[in-house]
Write a structure and sequence with these properties.
It contains 5 helices and 6 strands; from the N terminus they run βαααββαβαββ. It has helices spanning 31-34, 55-63, 74-91, 116-133, 165-181; strands spanning 4-10, 95-100, 104-110, 158-162, 195-201, 204-209. The strands form 2 sheets. The protein has a 4-stranded antiparallel sheet, with helices on both faces. The chain has a two-stranded antiparallel ribbon with strand order 5-6. Helix 3 (74-91) crosses helix 4 (116-133).
């Protein structure tokens, strides 16, 4: 039984659909990328970040992107945090850990009525609205009136299914330590609810969180 998810949402250009390590995409919409290979679709829910691959081919594909890869500033990271916090409160979404990196976001999320793919899409939408509202959209200069700017987030998401106390705690630790592995300071966000373990409930094991 899935109890929670380790969700990874990537900025535009961070993980391409034809990344040699594999991706969640089955479609490449630009010739500039297609010439570096077709989509490397995988079905695994495990991270492929450390899988050996042709690094130069990956970097060459990035250089062929239509827009520059998105790198979130500190102000944009705080806007992402506000968007996540607002969405979590409105939708009673329990977030057990979170880290916002310059080009991707890690979240550990308790199972919700929404499918995790829907949660990811809704979160990206909320973050985009926050960028526009604060006039800090990363690709605003490439927008054309009256249309919206290009998407700041990559298509799809990684979602690792967590079905035990051990899985959840390991993922929380990974997400909490992620900024320091990137040479950044450890992060504390108001939208995070500390994990309080699992407890028996009607219909099976349930996740408990401290509030």
């Amino acid at each position: 039984m899935v109890l929670a998810y380790h969700l990874i949402i990537c900025a535009y250009g961070f993980w391409l659909p034809n990344d040699p390590r594999g991706s969640w995409s089955d479609f490449i919409g630009a010739w500039e990328l297609l010439k570096f290979g077709r989509a490397t679709t995988v079905t695994t829910h495990r991270s492929l970040a450390k899988k050996s691959h042709d690094r130069e081919a990956r970097l060459a594909a990035k250089r062929a992107l239509k827009y520059p890869p998105v790198i979130f500033s500190g102000r944009q990271a705080n806007a992402i945090a506000r968007a996540i916090a607002g969405f979590a409160q409105k939708n009673e979404l329990t977030i057990l850990a979170g880290s916002i990196l310059p080009d991707h976001v890690h979240l550990v999320i308790a199972r919700h009525a929404y499918r995790i793919e829907q949660v990811a899409n809704l979160l990206k939408g909320e973050c985009t609205r926050q960028f526009v509202e604060e006039s800090i959209h990363p690709l605003a200069r490439f927008g054309t009136e009256p249309g919206p700017p290009p998407k700041a987030f990559a298509r799809g998401q990684w979602a690792v299914f967590l079905d035990s106390d051990e899985d959840i705690r390991r993922s929380i630790g990974y997400v909490e330590d992620n900024p320091t592995r990137e040479g950044l300071r450890r992060q504390t966000w108001s939208f995070v609810t500390p994990f309080a373990g699992l407890k028996p409930g009607i219909g099976g094991t349930r996740l408990a969180a401290s509030r």
